[in-house]
Amino acid sequence: MQPGIGNKKSYFNELGFKKTIDELIKQIAGLYLKDQIPWMVGYSGGKDSSACLQLMWKTLEYLKKNNKKLKPLYVITTDTLVENPIVSSWVKGSLHSLETSAKEQGLPIFPNLLIPNIKETFWVNLIGKGYPAPRRKFRWCTERMKIRPSDRFLRKLAAESGEAILVVGSRKAESSNRLASIKKFEEKSVRKNFTPHINLSNVFSFLPIKNWTNDDVWLYLLQEECPWGIQNKDLLSMYKGATDGGECPLVIDTSTPSCGDSRFGCWVCTLVKKDRSMAAMVQNDDEKSWMEPLMQLRNELDEHNHDKRDFRRLSGNVQLFVKDDEHSVPGPYTKNNRELWLAHLLKAQSIIRKNPKLPEDLKTIELISQEELNEIRRIWFYEKLEIEDTLPRICDKEAKGQYHFEPLEDSHVFDYDILKILKETCEGDEMFFELARGLLEVERKYYKSNRRSGLFDEFENIFKKSFYKDKTDAIEYAREKKKVKSQATPDVLQTGTDDI
User: Which residue from 24, 73, 149, 491 has the least number of CB within 10 angstroms?
Assistant: First the structure.
């Protein structure tokens, strides 16, 4: 009988602990030696992925002892750049020990820390583009920050070798959803012992602990010493410092539970009502009270945000709710609120850095990187035409000396002071100021260009977005437009969602 959700029977009952592990290692070794297909382990630093990685290490040790030829084993860890700092520090330390120990013992194990592309990080999207804090109906973060980095690595390796095997620590006993997911892919399997990857046709998943219970995982980790030198008891202590649940798994598809639903995840996660793990860490250990600014900022992100967002979508269109012609579907965060989020983030970073309880290895903690700030600045200046270039000023005020910026343009006619005069001339009319600023910047951009094709298209886009008198005027215009459209095509209804 295979233990599943709700079944407490240990996987080790039939043969006993040692014999079960020995037989499993021999089974893994047989599959590993079958061909030259490269293998990878998804490692998040939590208990399930640690057990899988430890099993794979033991397998390579067993094969080396028996003079078998070893092929590379790649370890992939995805860092969203907004991970819980305690867990992130633990994982990076573990990867460093893994790399060092593997070299010393002559094992071809190669750790890879994967991060999102700069244009797809959390802060570039939220502060730069104005994406609202993620919600279940607009979960923009998982695909960009978790799935794509690992898929890029998997795709590259599979393309070089034709196929690839990914070892994942998913277990049937995790939840009813996980049980259903594993069974679904087992039914689709066309290869014994392996299941198809959800996104990539030439990648197969191998789940060595899929039938283990939660207690089985801990028994293995505490009975078998970690071969690359970290202390599994320290991992247990980290779990004890938080609420019940499992670690943030390696996310390979959007059906995977949000990191915030599990033990450890992104500290900014708003897909759950409360980050219980971080709250418990702070509550259970006074030495971790330095994380309170993170909790506070995360809770601010989770607040109702329609008043912080533009009445226009990211494209500039104004869209009304289906059953409410009085309100527009909110778009991205406004310029003012994007600047406030940046200021709050940098302020939290400065407060944390000054906290005497901050661990030594986190003394220079960065909640946002220089590269991210450079990209946000580029988006504000060149894409949103916010040529006041306020980002360096905000950084200098809230995090003086921590970041450095070069001029975006050698000589820009419309500097901060000139635009301040323009704004005063517009007498508080934000829409008129936005229109004038955009038109002036587009004309400046094309002024010395030999080819001015595209100039009028850009002018048209600016007028479409900013020609309204105000929000009320924009909603009235959208209402009339919707009325005309519904009369022409009565069967077509416009829907309102929480995206942008």
Answer: 491
